[in-house]
Design goal:
Layout: H1 2-13, E1 22-23, E2 29-30, E3 45-46, E4 59-60, H2 72-91, H3 122-135, H4 157-169, H5 180-194, H6 198-209, E5 213-220, E6 223-228, H7 232-256, E7 264-268, E8 271-277, H8 285-306
Helix pairs in contact: 1-2, 1-4, 6-8, 7-8
Length: 307
């Protein structure tokens, strides 16, 4: 439905091969121009084979009827492949580790030194395979229901397709004049989002219910900042430095848990704290409870070892 809507919009307004003519505001129907884009550097001609006329050489493809920025039929065909790819990713998202266990340079070693130049239709299928086999294993999966780090990164079926729709129409709502409808819609949407913080409030309540912890800063929207407390005797002996080291250790233990949550940290006024940002649309109440259970278990283990 979304793909069809975008294609129909572009068929009316874009430079497509094989689409019906569109009408210029000042005259009769006109055909779209043949717009070209440059290929990788090793699939090149110079100035499309045309005379240079004293101009600096610019690498462009030779003139070709098929070289177009956008093509309605191709967009429809490849778009379905991308939708299937993303749907499969969402279906198996819970099976990925939230944070990858890779080292710097892992991807660079797997990529060719020169950009590949594959003919269609193999090129797009090969690119999707590279995304699946090379990129996904090395990514932090922000949409994972166990992702509680940094800040919310929510998505949904309607949201993802809405993003495709906005990209297809090329909405640029940085001012009201640039896109009046999009700007006013964004303002109303923000009002709706502010009211949805129920799971973050539930996590905050669980932290407050455990006397070993404290909420280290007032909750803001979906973000809960908390920390594990030292006993009064140990805090007196080690001060804030000891408390900070304790919570650094706790964060390491929480994030190292197999199939556990992934959180981040903050340092505010010299106080180290854990950050739990609840916002993925795939996160359910059970994920929040499981995340808190992991925090409690790791805290119990650390405190027991410290005596």
């Amino acid at each position: 439905m979304v793909l069809r809507l975008v294609v129909e919009y572009w068929s009316e307004h874009g430079p497509f091969k094989g689409t019906r003519p569109y009408t210029d505001v000042n005259g009769p129907a006109v055909q779209p121009k043949n717009v070209q884009m440059a290929p990788p550097s090793h699939c090149r001609t110079v100035n499309g084979g045309a005379p240079r006329n004293g101009a600096i050489a610019v690498e462009t493809p030779a003139t070709s009827e098929s070289s177009r920025l956008l093509d309605a039929d191709e967009f429809r065909r490849l778009g379905h492949q991308v939708v299937d790819f993303i749907a499969d990713y969402y279906a198996g998202l819970g099976d990925y580790p939230v944070h990858p266990g890779v080292a710097p340079g892992f991807l660079r070693r797997q990529l060719p030194a020169d950009a590949p130049c594959r003919p269609e239709p193999e090129a797009f299928a090969a690119a999707l395979r590279d995304v699946r086999d090379l990129l996904l294993p090395g990514m932090t999966h922000w949409q994972s229901p166990r992702h509680f780090a940094h800040f919310p990164a929510s998505s949904s079926t309607v949201g993802a397709l809405g993003g495709a729709l906005a990209a297809g129409i090329n909405v640029v709502p940085f001012t009201w004049a640039a896109s009046p409808a999009a700007t006013e819609l964004e303002m109303r949407l923000r009002e709706h989002i502010r009211s949805h913080v129920r799971m973050a409030a539930a996590f905050e309540a669980m932290v407050r219910a455990d006397a070993r912890f404290e909420v280290a800063a007032p909750r803001r929207f979906a973000l809960v900042c908390f920390r594990l407390l030292l006993s009064p005797e140990k805090e007196l002996a080690g001060g804030e430095k000891a408390a900070n080291e304790l919570n650094r250790r706790l964060l390491e233990e929480v994030n190292a848990a197999s199939s556990g949550p992934y959180m981040s940290s903050a340092m505010v006024g010299g106080v180290y704290m854990l950050r739990c940002a609840i916002g993925s649309t795939l996160t359910e109440e059970r994920h929040v409870r499981e995340a808190w259970n992991v925090v409690q278990e790791r805290a119990t283990s650390i405190l027991r070892k410290r005596g």
